């Protein structure tokens, strides 16, 4: 009898802390699962589409970018709503939203534009201005800049002194 009680005590003292320990692990897991996607932190598709629309409206007439004849020609040929649609879908998907991007790769879409480092920097400046105008918080701005930055190697194909 005494041995039984001792065994039970031993089991309880060993298993109980393990169980409470594993409870902590589960709690951490569910907190991780609940981590909110960038897409949701930005407010979802409606605000994303508004920011993208403003961004493209600011890019298209920009004199620095349109000094590049290939960009200028593409701007005249490609409808703004088409670009807005594709860029919105891309941002929605890349930030963890429910959209699927069906456009071309960044290399395919930009290779013929001879985009330089200077033109890239100009685009980033405009992008930052638009995010600031819409009061996108610092953390989300940083994450969006990192996402955009990850495409740079596929988009910038020319030297500034071309
Ligand atoms: C200096 C930077 C950039 C310039 C000047 C630029 C300009 C353009 C132009 C003119 C087009 C139309 C090309 C054509 O159809 O002939 C285009 C397409 C596109 N761009 Fe950019 N772009 C830049 C950076 C970016 C970045 C950073 C992204 C996204 C992260 C992006 C996403 C797209 C998408 C999704 C398309 C449409 C692809 C398709 O037609 O399938 N662009 N861009």
Molecular structure report:
By secondary structure, the chain is an all-alpha fold. It has two domains: 1-35; 38-155, Globin-like (Orthogonal Bundle), CATH 1.10.490.10. It is built from ten helices and no strands. Helix 3 (45-59) packs across helix 6 (80-94) and helix 3 (45-59) crosses helix 8 (117-133). The radius of gyration is 25 Å and the shape is globular. The model is unreliable at 8-26 (pLDDT under 50). Heme binds at residues 86, 110. This is Group 1 truncated hemoglobin. Residues 1-27 form the signal peptide. Keywords: Heme, Iron, Metal-binding, Signal, Transport. GO terms for molecular function: heme binding; metal ion binding; oxygen binding.
How would you describe this structure in keywords?
heme binding, 0% strand, signal, Hemoglobin_trunc, Globin-like, binds protoporphyrin IX containing FE, metal-binding, 162 residues, 2 domains, mainly alpha, metal ion binding
Q: Write down how many β-strands occur, each being a DSSP E stretch of 2 or more residues.
A: 0
Ligands bound, unique: protoporphyrin IX containing FE
Beta-strand residue fraction: under 5%
Reading the helices and strands in chain order gives HHHHHHHHHH
What separation lies between the terminal Cα atoms? 91 Å
- The percent range for helix content is over 70%
Q: How would you characterize the largest beta sheet? A: none
- What class would the helix/strand composition place it in? mainly alpha
InterPro entries: Globin-like_sf, Globin/Proto, Hemoglobin_trunc
GO molecular function: heme binding; metal ion binding; oxygen binding
Keywords: Heme, Iron, Metal-binding, Signal, Transport
Protein name: Group 1 truncated hemoglobin
């Amino acid at each position: 009898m005494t041995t039984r009680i001792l065994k039970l005590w031993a089991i309880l003292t060993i298993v109980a802390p393990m169980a409470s320990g594993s409870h902590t692990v589960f709690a951490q897991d569910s907190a991780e699962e609940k981590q909110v996607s960038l897409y949701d932190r930005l407010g979802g598709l409606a605000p994303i589409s508004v920011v993208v629309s403003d961004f493209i409206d600011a890019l298209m007439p920009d004199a620095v970018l349109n000094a590049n004849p290939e960009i200028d020609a593409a701007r005249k040929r490609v409808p703004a709503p088409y670009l807005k649609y594709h860029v919105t879908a891309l941002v929605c998907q890349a930030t963890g939203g429910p959209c699927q991007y069906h456009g071309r790769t960044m290399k395919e879409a930009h290779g013929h534009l001879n985009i330089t480092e200077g033109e890239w920097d100009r685009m980033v400046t405009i992008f930052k201005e638009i995010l600031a105008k819409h009061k996108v918080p610092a953390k989300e701005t940083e994450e969006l800049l990192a996402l955009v930055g990850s495409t740079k190697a596929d988009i910038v194909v020319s030297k500034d002194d071309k």
